[in-house]
Structure formats: structure tokens, C-alpha cells
Design a protein that fits this description.
Elements (H helix, E strand, L loop, with lengths): L1 H14 L13 E2 L9 E11 L4 H18 L4 E10 L2 E10 L2
Parallel strand pairs: 1-3
Antiparallel strand pairs: 2-4, 3-4
Length: about 100
């Protein structure tokens, strides 16, 4: 029975690691490099997530961190420059923009 509770605790801990979007980041969108031509470059941002329950969950959480970071610096769009995913986690790099 003790093992069962340990497993439940571990699953709850790992699933709690997923990053949710902030209210400001909900409107942050991914754009193409060509779509950024009429936007102001704000700087690079990144997001990472490791040891989640799934690779897809880690990727979603890492992109949520990118969107949150873009919103924090006043942006509303980003161009994804690199994402690396494996069984251990995901790291995403992007350039943040402010677009009209």
C-alpha cells in the first residue's frame, strides 16, 4: 500500500510541473520569419521542461514558457528558432516580437 501512495505522489508531482499560460500570454501567437518583417524585435526568449509524463507534454509546457516570456517583455508574437525534444525533456528558443 505504501508503494501505491508513493506512486500517486510521484505522478502528482510530475504532472504539476506543466506550465500554464498567463492571462497576458494567451494572445501571444507564433508567426513565421516573413510575418515578422513589420514587427519590432524585442529579443530572444526560451522555455524548457524536463521529466514530465510525456514528450508532448514537455513540448507544450516549454512553448507555454516561451509565450509567457514573450508576454513578460511586452511582445505579442514569436518566431520559433529551435526546439529540441527527447525522452528527458524539451528546450525551445524563439525571438520575441511586438506586432501591430
Amino acid at each position: 500500500m505504501k508503494t501505491f501512495y508513493s506512486m500517486i505522489t510521484a505522478v502528482a508531482f510530475l504532472s504539476a510541473c506543466s506550465t500554464e499560460l498567463t492571462n497576458q500570454a494567451v494572445s501571444v501567437r507564433q508567426i513565421s520569419l516573413a510575418g515578422a518583417e513589420n514587427c519590432s524585435f524585442l529579443g530572444p526568449v526560451s522555455g524548457s521542461e524536463f521529466f514530465g509524463l510525456t514528450v508532448a507534454g514537455d513540448a507544450r509546457s516549454a512553448l507555454n514558457k516561451v509565450r509567457n516570456s514573450v508576454a513578460e517583455i511586452g511582445g505579442n508574437a514569436f518566431v520559433l528558432t529551435q526546439t529540441v525534444s527527447d525522452a528527458d525533456g524539451t528546450v525551445s528558443h524563439a525571438d520575441a516580437y511586438s506586432c501591430k
